[in-house]
Amino acid sequence: MVHKIIYTDQAPGPGNYSQATLVDPYGKLILHISGIVGEHANDSLHEKAGDIPIKIWDQTLLALKNIESIIKEVGGDMKDIAKVVVYMEDMLKNKTEFENAYRMYLKNSGVDSLPARVSLGVSTIPLPKDNAKIELDVTAYISKDKVSEKYR
After folding, report:
1. Among 15-19, 22-26, 62-66, which range has the highest average pLDDT?
2. Would the pLDDT of 87 be above 80?
3. SS3 letters for 70-82?
4. Is 96 exposed, middle or buried (0-12, 13-18, 19+ CB in 10 A)?
5. Average pLDDT of the residues of the chain
6. 39-65 pLDDT, tens digit each
7. Could you tell me if residue 75 is left (phi over 0), alpha (psi between -120 and 50 degrees) or otherwise beta?
8. Helix (H) or strand (E) holding 104
9. Domains of the chain by range and CATH?
10. Distance (Å, rounded) from C-alpha 112 to C-alpha 114?
11. Which of 4, 24, 91, 106 is the most buried (most CB within 10 A)?
């Protein structure tokens, strides 16, 4: 089984883990993206890299933007997402705003069929910054013919 590490500076850098891994078990490419939060990446024009917005709406859009950057790095798009796991603080308070931002972003990205999803309420998102309210863990299946040369 081929296992490649994926990295882009268009999403926040990883800690002691990989941003994503691309696995090729028996000819199907599976992209596993590590837990991503709504954190500004190195390419942010108006915000400092590493900053996390306060509103769940903004965190959701930024987390999805970071995920999209990683998927595009490999050659895929948001339609390739098969499953999302959502970790959310104070789910009763944040769920509606999250759902609205999530659906809007995916719709604007051309996603017609929403991926499978699990949403888990958590007491805290384990980051040095204490204002992260969501974390998204994503699995995408990317056609071999779409994968960029860099990761073949």
Report:
1. 62-66
2. yes
3. HHHHHCCCHHHEE
4. exposed
5. 87
6. 877 665 556 767 888 999 999 999 999
7. left
8. helix 91-108
9. 2-151 (3.30.1330.40)
10. 6
11. 106
Query: DSSP readout, 112-138?
Result: -SPPEEEEEEES---SSSTT--EEEEE
pTM: 0.86
Average pLDDT over residues 82-102: 96
The first and second tokens of residue 134, run together, are: 């969501």
Secondary element (H or E) of residue 34: strand 29-36
- The amino acid occupying position 66 is N
pLDDT at residue 85, as a whole number = 97
Residue partners of 98: CB distance under 8 A and separation at least 6: 56, 57, 60, 86, 88, 134
Q: How far apart are CA 84 and CA 58, in angstroms?
A: 18
Q: Does pLDDT of 19 surpass 70?
A: yes
Q: What are phi and psi of 31, to 5 degrees?
A: -105, 115
Neighbours of 138 (CB within 10 A): 27
> DSSP letter at 49?
T
